[in-house]
Amino acid sequence: MAEAHEGPRGRYVPYAPRSGRLANINITVKREPGERGGGAGRDGGRRSWFKITIPYGKKYDKSWLLSSIQNLCSVPFTPVEFHYDHNRAQFYVEDATTASALKQVSRKITDRDNYKSLQNELKPEEIEQLKLCMSKRYDGSQKALDLKSLRVDPDLVAQSIDVVLNQRSSMGVVLRIIEDNIPELQSLNLGSNRLFRLDDLAELPLKAPALKVLDLSRNELKSERELDKVKGLKLEELWLDGNPLCDSFRDQSSYIRSVLHTWGVGQSPGTPRDPLRPRDPRDPQGPPGTPVYYSVYDSSDRQGLLDAYHDGACCSLSIPYGPHTPPRNSLNEYFKDSRNVKKLKDPTMRFKLLKHTRLNVVAFLNELPKTQHDVNSFVVDICAQTNTLLCFTVHGIFKEVDGKSRDSVRAFTRMFIAVPAGNSGLCIVNDELFVRGASPEELRKAFALPTPTPSSSPVPTLSAEQQEMLAAFAMQSGMNLEWSQK
């Protein structure tokens, strides 16, 4: 990043750039004397304006350029008087904090096409693939479209199609597809798409006038003022949990008052979901250890588990060696990823087999054999609990449902470490999976129908300490008391 400067400075001019050359976009910052527009700053003093200059900025599409800068900038900013001066793009920002944040972005935006316009326009064939992807995510019976974490959709990733919903071009294509194909849409999930502003959703009330449910959870919305841009919607449900704006509210009532004020009297979006309350236990992002979590894990696509994991989560798989371990080839799909450090001495392989970041974790889980878990076999045990951490294990049985080992029954132990996820309950920071062959006793009991319990059966008595632990675990995990006691 160039330092703030007081005058023009020389720069290299690539007279004959080579094909495929990488060019890092430079941003310079200069403090401007005097006032622009007059008046006082936010603190009541005189305003301090800073000129932001992007050399060769005229070569880029304005929307793409500003969006790319905002994606990397740590604070939201409003460009004032955006204009071109010869080949330079220039605009002004008001305060030093914003100027400093913009300075940190310099040379982090890469142009791979020799100063060509880098607007992320989808090609016609890519739009057709996006339509197919959206059709798979549409539930006609509920008139619901789930576009959560769209950029990492396996179908799009497999074809190297990059759909970034916080860029105007991608969001515009999605809205056109909605308008042309499903204008009757009633529920739209845009969660986990790194949306930091809602300008590109301004036409949503026209594209989907029947929309009643809008899920914007786990995005980067910093101010409730962003909701002004979609206030034309007549919503019954609005999901905002997991956004930075939720941290500014003291409690549920102040949150609801603020959101209802945005829509105005008579245009209430219904009761917004309380950002301070964990999601409904029926939510697919339910706590690990509940049947709901494993219903997603057992589905054809485990991508739905993305939001259950922390951005910096890690995961590993180990195959123990013991009397019940079947021949190596019967667990071949697991052995190749086993990180049993008792057997694995190579430090490079130890590091490689430890999956880092939630994207890599869920991608790894997606590669494991498809399964069906016997939830009646589950035993959940708390290892440690504090106000900021919950460590627990899940023991149980599952069987594989496809491939060469179809119907093979396995036993597993899974240790989770979870932490509070802002206003969204728990998220996993560590996931250790141990898989082994089922014992004869486990095979006999696997997937057996539970025997009805006679009403005269004695109810086990828990100590006061056990009851306190049970209540705490039920509250943090979202399970009911019966499941928490298992």
TrEMBL record:
Residues 266-291 are annotated as: Disordered. It holds the Pfam family NXF_NTF2. Signal peptide: none annotated. It is found in: Nucleus, Nucleoplasm. GO terms for cellular component: cytoplasm; nucleoplasm. One of its GO terms (molecular function) is RNA binding. Keywords: Leucine-rich repeat, mRNA transport, Nucleus, Repeat, RNA-binding, Transport. The keyword Repeat applies. It comes from the Eukaryota. The keyword Ribonucleoprotein does not apply. Belongs to the NXF family. This is Uncharacterized protein. The lineage of its organism: Eukaryota, Metazoa, Chordata, Craniata, Vertebrata.
